[in-house]
Amino acid sequence: MNKFPYKLTPPKQVVNEAIRYLKIKPTITTVEATFNAIELYVAENIRAVMDIPPYNRALLDGFACRSSDLVYASEESPVVLKVSMNSSKLRPRECVKVNTGDKVPEEADIVVPKEYVMEYGDGIAIGRSFPPGYGIGRRGEDIRKGEVIISVGERLKPWHIALISSQGIKTIKVYKLPKVAVFSTGSEILEPGEPYRDGMVYDSTRRLVLSYLRWMGFPVEDKGLVPDDEVKVYLKFKELLAEYDIVFSTGGTSLGERDYTVKALSKLKPEYMVHGFAIKPGRPGAIAVVEGKLVFALSGFPVAALSELELVFKPLVLKLFNIKLRHPKILAKLTRRIPSQPGIVELYRVRVWRKDMEYYAEPLMLTGSGILSTLIHGNALLVIPEDSTGYDEGDLVEVELISW
Prior knowledge:
Layout: H1 11-18, E1 27-32, E2 41-42, E3 46-47, E4 57-58, E5 62-65, E6 79-83, E7 94-98, E8 110-113, E9 117-120, E10 123-126, E11 136-137, E12 148-150, H2 158-166, E13 171-176, E14 180-185, E15 189-190, E16 201-202, H3 205-216, E17 220-226, H4 230-241, E18 246-250, H5 261-266, E19 272-275, E20 279-280, E21 286-290, E22 293-298, H6 302-321, E23 329-334, E24 338-339, E25 345-355, E26 358-363, H7 373-377, E27 380-384, E28 390-391, E29 396-401
Parallel strand pairs: 6-7, 14-17, 14-18, 15-16, 18-22, 20-25, 23-26
Antiparallel strand pairs: 1-13, 2-13, 3-12, 4-11, 5-7, 5-8, 6-10, 9-10, 19-21, 21-22, 23-29, 24-28, 25-26, 25-27, 27-29
Helix pairs in contact: 1-6, 3-6
């Protein structure tokens, strides 16, 4: 039963509604396609300017020749070819000596490995035939000039840089994501490094959020801690919204006497606001759009905050900025049953392993928004959609790998 008294809004609805009010956009800048561009998001479709390979090339050491000259070659009746010194044009019954990677004449459609060749004088003898294409990498068989090699929104990895460089492209356009500010609320919060006091907790959630946003590629700034005071929380929101396009807070989103964050947020007179997500964990979170800028009030519990980031924030910014952030997904067998409440999107932390050529997924904790250990022991996420009543033991489910 839902104990949260407000109406819970499905995350897809939140994304589709909030995006209509938001006015923030990433800027586009030009950078050199070097290691400094790693993890940036491409702001254009990058097209090949040349074929790869740029010419027909030898895939092994040997002799480039015509396969038609060797149709009847055998050990008993080897074919004799003349070795030509002209590598630009090849006549019938001629061949050219090549090394791996060398350009081969257009007329040649095979490269015969040197171990199958007997050399003498200015000729060679070959005692077997080879199929057309043997030992040759054809021009453009890897990449064709004009094709899109990296799509807009892709996040650059080392292999992307190699691919761009192979085309002789020096600079590319990338997105520069807006700066994000993060602060936490709570009079019971201690900063790591402070002496522990009974009844207090160290602030892990703010650091999780800061790290998550940096991992996504956002330039983030830590704005510290604000005590449980509605006026101070309101003033902090107002101060940060004057400088930043995206502002996050952690804590104070539930319905306790000292939960002032949502009250302070509502006083900013947002154009759009939702308090209560149809997700689990993370139901008490809130989102608002204030003068076209984005504000997220996340739970003070780290696992609930992660759920809100994964199920609401990430889909929103990927759609808003047209960027892609992919993790591999695999099918795995559940090791035990997972019940689910219809109408709620649930995020489970699971541990995935492989045995006898099959993958298995073990749910770690079915409850507990503050159980930090599941973030470490789990290596995958399982999202149960709102129209599901759960999965049985042995069911194949799609999980998203976050580590291995």
